[in-house]
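Message: Just now I want nothing more than another pair of eyes on a protein record. I am handing you a single protein, as its sequence and its fold in token form. As I understand it, each token names a local backbone shape. Take your time, and here it is.
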Amino acid sequence: MKNEERLQTQVVEYLKYALPKDSFFHHSPNEGRRHVNFMVKLKKMGFKAGFPDIVIWVKGKPTLFIELKVGKNKLTQNQIDVRDTLLSLGHKYCVAYNLIDVDNFLKKELTT
């Protein structure tokens, strides 16, 4: 299992217990290489390169987006563009390198 995949799995398990009952989360599988014809099809269907790994909806709160990174990985330009768009729309965004980053983000955003 790759490091980012391991972190993704840990975060999902954490979210199952950490989020309030009136919430919902989703992972958009947008990583990995795909055949060019399949990518064309995905784009026609609304695929956006750089979309965050996890989206969280909590009743009465702005939508939360989490991009997971491991090691020295940084946001790509597509991820920066998507982040900036989401923030400009009033949503909350976090780049998380570990569970502590996710926990801190959720505590901050869910208690305000």
User: Anything to note?
Assistant: The mean pLDDT is 88. The domain at 3-110 is CATH 3.40.1350.10 (Trna Endonuclease; Chain: A, domain 1). The chain has one domain: 3-110.
